[in-house]
Specification:
This protein is of the alpha+beta class. The chain has two domains: about 160 residues, Nucleoside Triphosphate Pyrophosphohydrolase (Alpha-Beta Complex), CATH 3.90.79.10; about 70 residues, Orthogonal Bundle (Arc Repressor Mutant, subunit A), CATH 1.10.10. Strands 1, 2, 3, 4, 5, 6, 7 and 8 form an eight-stranded mixed sheet that branches. It is elongated, with a radius of gyration of 20 Å. Its EC number is 3.6.1.55. InterPro entries: NUDIX_hydrolase-like_dom_sf, NUDIX_hydrolase_dom, WH-like_DNA-bd_sf, WH_DNA-bd_sf, WHD_NrtR. Keywords: Hydrolase.
C-alpha cells in the first residue's frame, strides 16, 4: 500500500502502522555552562520530510527479519559509530499523531556509553560524529534543542531522563558510565549530572561508603596534582529486573 503524504487522521487510521526502532543514548561530558559533568546525547538531523532539517533521535524502520535489540544497535552504529556497552528497552510510543504522514509505532531503547567512548571536539555546543555534520552531540537538557525536535522526540528524551533519575540509586548506572574502576568523586559527578543538581561532597561520600555494592580496591587514580584518590569498583548485579536486553 502506498504511503499517503500528510494524510488526515481518518486516512492514517486505515493504513497499517509502521514499526520503527529509536535509541536515546546518554554519556557524561564536561559542561562549561555549569562547570561540572552533564548528560549529553547524539541527535541526527533529518534530511527528508517530514521535519526535514530538524534534529531527531537515531533510529529507523524495523526490518522484517531484525530483532529489536539488533536493530537498535545497528541504527546506533550506522548513525553515530557507537557500540553501546548497555542497551535496554525503554518504552513503546504509538500515538496516532506522532507522524504527519503515517502512523508509526516506535520501540525505543536507551543506552549508556562511557565518556571515553563518546568522541570530543573543541566545539562547546556540539561535536560531530563520523565526520558527518548531520550527527552531533547536545546537552540532554538543552531547551533550545528540545523545543525543536522532530516528531515526539522531546517527550521520549524527557521520559528517558525521568527513568534514569529514578534508577540512579542503582550503583550500576555509575558503573556503566564510568567503567570498571572509579573514584567516589567521579560517582558524585554521575549523580550530579543525572539529577542536575550539586550534592554535598562529605554527605555523599559517607552514603557511598555505607553502600553494600561498592568496594574499595588497592588501586589509586594517578596523574593528579594532589594525593591520589582511591579507586572503587561496583560489586552488585550488572542487570536489573526491568532490563529487557543487555549488551555488556
Amino acid at each position: 500500500m502506498s504511503q499517503i503524504p500528510f494524510a488526515n487522521v481518518a486516512e492514517r487510521r486505515d493504513q497499517p502502522p509502521m514499526l520503527a526502532v529509536s535509541t536515546v543514548i546518554f554519556a557524561l561530558r564536561d559542561d562549561e555552562r555549569s562547570g561540572r559533568k552533564s548528560l549529553w546525547l547524539p541527535l541526527v538531523r533529518r534530511t527528508r520530510e517530514p521535519f526535514r532539517g530538524q534534529w531527531a533521535l537515531p533510529g529507523g524502520p524495523l526490518g522484517p527479519r531484525d530483532s529489536l535489540v539488533d536493530a537498535a544497535a545497528a541504527n546506533l552504529l550506522d548513525t553515530t559509530g557507537l557500540i553501546p556497552r548497555y542497551l535496554e528497552q525503554l518504552y513503546a510510543f504509538g500515538d496516532l499523531d506522532r507522524s504527519p504522514t503515517r502512523r508509526v509505532v516506535s520501540i525505543v531503547y536507551w543506552a549508556l556509553v562511557r565518556e571515553d567512548d563518546a568522541p570530543h571536539t573543541d566545539t562547546p555546543a556540539t561535536s560531530v560524529l563520523l565526520d558527518d555534520p548531520n550527527v552531533a552531540w547536545f546537552r540532554a537538557d538543552d531547551e533550545s534543542v528540545l523545543a525543536n525536535l522532530a516528531f515526539d522526540h522531546r517527550q521520549i528524551i524527557e521520559y528517558a531522563l525521568w527513568r534514569l533519575r529514578n534508577k540512579v540509586e542503582y550503583g550500576s548506572i555509575a558503573h556503566r558510565l564510568l567503567g570498571e574502576r572509579f573514584t567516589l568523586a567521579q560517582v558524585r559527578e554521575v549523580y550530579e549530572a543525572v539529577l542536575n543538581k550539586s550534592l554535598d561532597p562529605a554527605n555523599f561520600r559517607r552514603q557511598l561508603r555505607a553502600a553494600t555494592d561498592l568496594e574499595e580496591t588497592d588501586e589509586f587514580l594517578s596523574g593528579g596534582k594532589h594525593r591520589p584518590p582511591r579507586l572503587y569498583r561496583y560489586t552488585g548485579s550488572t542487570s536489573h529486573p526491568l532490563e529487557s536486553e543487555n549488551i555488556s
